[in-house]
Task: inverse folding
């Protein structure tokens, strides 16, 4: 699945029903001052509460780009976008903007990915692949017994990639449901599929729902859930 730079979004972009678009940005390459004027008071306060200046700048940029992207989809100026939040904090468009458009955001380090979809609930997760000190013990916490059985048969050199593939799939699904990792991470796949979407790049269709693995940039893994 293509992941495009956010500045490549054309005006009046409208996804077809069931479609999803992915956009990325490198947060440290953007000027946070360009987005200050379109953020809400709450968004500005949220950024100021972050301990590091880099974290505050990244928050400002990510939220600002989200507003710009949604503004182009909704044909509204970015500052007029209004958000509401689900019980577990998942952001969505406020009722007066409800047009069948849903969105989700994930960032890891300097990279952020925005998913914008039509007529489905969307969740996206990206992770920068990094060493895990005791990957077998970590896997035993987050994987179901069936997943763990397959994981344990892998050569040591393949376990890290498989773990991040499974992790991003699970988090994308839980984010689409609006639960995040407050949901049952071990058995999340059992709710939505019978086939196994562990292979990187596989697009799995289950009753008009999609799970897609993608690589947003070198050294990263990502997953998209459209439910």
Result:
């Amino acid at each position: 699945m293509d992941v495009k730079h956010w500045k490549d979004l054309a005006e009046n972009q409208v996804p077809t029903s069931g479609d999803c678009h992915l956009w990325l940005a490198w947060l440290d390459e953007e000027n946070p001052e360009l987005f200050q004027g379109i953020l809400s008071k709450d968004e500005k306060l949220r950024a100021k509460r972050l301990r590091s200046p880099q974290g505050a700048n990244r928050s400002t940029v990510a939220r600002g780009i989200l507003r710009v992207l949604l503004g182009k989809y909704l044909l509204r100026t970015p500052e007029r976008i209004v958000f509401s939040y689900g019980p577990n904090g998942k952001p969505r468009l406020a009722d007066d903007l409800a047009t069948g458009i849903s969105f989700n955001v994930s960032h890891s380090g300097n990279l952020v990915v925005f998913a914008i979809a039509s007529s489905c609930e969307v969740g996206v997760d990206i992770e920068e692949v990094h060493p895990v000190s005791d990957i077998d013990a970590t896997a035993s916490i987050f994987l179901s017994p069936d997943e763990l059985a397959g994981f344990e048969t892998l050569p040591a050199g393949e376990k890290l990639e498989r773990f991040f593939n499974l992790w991003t799939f699970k988090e994308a699904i839980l984010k689409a449901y609006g639960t995040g990792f407050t949901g049952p991470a071990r058995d999340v796949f059992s709710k939505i599929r019978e086939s196994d979407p562990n292979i990187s790049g596989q697009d799995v269709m289950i009753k008009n729902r999609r799970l897609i693995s993608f690589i947003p940039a070198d050294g990263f893994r990502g997953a998209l859930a459209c439910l």
Summary: The first strand starts at residue 3 and ends at 5. Strands lie at 3-5, 20-26, 83-85, 91-93, 101-108, 111-118, 122-128, 203-206, 209-214, 220-226. The CA atoms of residues 2 and 43 lie 29 Å apart. The chain has a mean pLDDT of 87.
